[in-house]
Design a protein that fits this description.
- With 313 residues, the protein is mainly beta.
- The protein folds into three domains: 35 residues, no CATH class; 109 residues, Immunoglobulin-like; 126 residues, Immunoglobulin-like (Sandwich).
- Helices cover 5% and strands 41% of the residues.
- The chain is built from one helix and 20 strands.
- It has an 18-stranded mixed sheet that branches. The protein has a two-stranded antiparallel ribbon with strand order 1-2.
- A hairpin with a 7-residue loop joins strand 12 and strand 13.
- The protein starts with a helix and ends with a strand.
Length: 313
Amino acid sequence: MRIGSLATALGITLCMTVGMIRVYGNNWTLVSGPLQDDSWTVIEYPDGQEITVELKPSASAPEAKGTARVMRRGNETSISLDVSGLTGDESAYHVYLVDSLGNTTELGSLTISDGSASLSGNTALTKFMIVVSPEADLTTIVSETKVALRSTVPSGFTVVPKEKGGEIENPEATSTPQMEPAATETPEYDAPLLGIGSLKRGANTMMRAQLSSGFEGARANISIKPQKNGPTQIKIRFTYLKEAPEGTQYLLWEVTPEGSYSLLGRLTPTGKKNETKVDAQTALPDFGLFITAEGAEANPSSPGGGMIATIIK
């Protein structure tokens, strides 16, 4: 065999078996990692600098296009998104942020007019990619997910590799710690105020859940939306939150700046596997949020069960 043919054959074999060596003409180029997957475009946004991100259409929405302006200030990131060309059978679209673990949080829904829409919102995430999809209540993006637009990687930025530490390969096989029985005395609940007055009216702000010991495997999608003239809307969705023992329920509470409590709602299954949610609203100008495990007959003004999660910015 001629040397050139042998080199080409070896190059093809190495590309197929290792996935780390590409051959361009007669030149050999070593790549220091796996071949790039252009469907994974998570980047880390720099502090104090507005970044413009182009949104790339999928084959299902070839006429669509969009731009997102992302501005991070410390641990809060604001996003302003404009899209057009969203025509077809779908009547509603949702904007999701996908973090470095592959989990999603919904930034908000798009109101389409002549194929165009705009959306603004805030998040505590600093590393994410943006996905526009007609599917509602997504907790992760998989190959079967309908995607209209997804963010590209701006020039000069490096893709953040997908982290594996938070993934749960087989949630059903994960051992479930036994829940501690409820305390006989009302415990103290340390739930910080969320600073509602500083949030943008009419826009969704994404929050995080600080999970108690034994519940670390759960994933939360939390949205707070103060209205210009009306109550603040609260939407919380959990995936892989272990099932409450028989006779026990998970309840969402608010706490005032003065330290009084009120029951806002109960986490209920959504019909999707491993997912529960609670949607609530409150007229308080500022408040803290937390979730406890309570018995079947809970006092609506006095939590007494063990803490499950605290909502934080």
